[in-house]
Amino acid sequence: MVEQKYRAVPEVLDGSPITEVAQRYGVSRQSVYTWKAKYGAGGFEGLREVSRRPRTSPTRLPAEVVALVCEMRRSHSRWGARRIAYEIERAGTERAPSRATVHRILSRNGLVRPQEQQHRRRYKRWQRETPMHLWQLDLVGGIYLADGRECKMLTGIDDHSRLIVVAEVLAVPSGRAVADAFVRAMRIHGVPAEVLADNGKQFTGRYTRPRPAEVLFERVCRENGIGAKLTKPYSPTTTGEIERWHRTLRRELLDDCGPFASLEAAQAAISEWVHLFLARRPRRSRRGASHLVTATRSVAVSCFPGAERRCGLAGGAG
């Protein structure tokens, strides 16, 4: 285009009709008139292309925000763009960036690595419509004490609100200890309509030999009208929410803080972490609302199954 200008303008100045010059160079007559006017104002220098990029950008993020994004990523290497954007907005930072903007900042500064495409099997996602409809329960190990013992913990998550309803460390993961912890959780949060657990001996006597027998956990469920559901053997994705929470717990707490001085110290550390997790962790499916906010909203407007039994239990583990 620049070369066309330099050749077309002299032809016009030499007397060639503007219409013919425009046709010869494949441009409009208005373009030729514009080139001629620019030449008259500044000579051949006036024909040079001028950048249309604005000298200032009102939407450009301040350098302080860019630096904050990079610093948060370096300090918390496992935080992604969504988490960083959430934390900046939660802190009340003026002009908090969006998730996409945070990702661009991280990419420009070499703080993200492109992931290899993984072809994973797709699983059907499901979620109960109301809180207290279903609790997912599980036993997780890997909680080490200073004396060398490994403890297990009963964990439970509300399928709808993702509220952690129980996270109790057990000295011995017996059937009675699990049932006792389950009862204590119900006295705090209420009685769910259903529970979903794996086929561990603490949760079911279905596979007891020589004949099936009801275990204490099943008795507590039966006496309180709770539907006890079991996962299929070797199907960890059925309780995917609680399994994913276990990975987060291990990554953010257990991998760095153990072994604990005592069972009580382990319980205190886990309880504190759970409180912070529920209060601060954004939920993707709830537009960034924390688990505590989500649970409170849902319970406040829902007459969930089991509400009429909230104040007491029909049976116990004692």
From TrEMBL:
<protein>
    <submittedName>
        <fullName>Integrase</fullName>
    </submittedName>
</protein>
<feature type="domain" description="Integrase catalytic">
    <location>
        <begin position="127"/>
        <end position="299"/>
    </location>
</feature>
<dbReference type="InterPro" id="IPR012337">
    <property type="entry name" value="RNaseH-like_sf"/>
</dbReference>
<dbReference type="Pfam" id="PF13565">
    <property type="entry name" value="HTH_32"/>
</dbReference>
<dbReference type="Pfam" id="PF00665">
    <property type="entry name" value="rve"/>
</dbReference>
<dbReference type="InterPro" id="IPR047656">
    <property type="entry name" value="IS481-like_transpos"/>
</dbReference>
<dbReference type="GO" id="GO:0003676">
    <property type="term" value="F:nucleic acid binding"/>
</dbReference>
<dbReference type="InterPro" id="IPR036388">
    <property type="entry name" value="WH-like_DNA-bd_sf"/>
</dbReference>
<dbReference type="InterPro" id="IPR036397">
    <property type="entry name" value="RNaseH_sf"/>
</dbReference>
<dbReference type="InterPro" id="IPR001584">
    <property type="entry name" value="Integrase_cat-core"/>
</dbReference>
<dbReference type="InterPro" id="IPR009057">
    <property type="entry name" value="Homeodomain-like_sf"/>
</dbReference>
<dbReference type="GO" id="GO:0015074">
    <property type="term" value="P:DNA integration"/>
</dbReference>
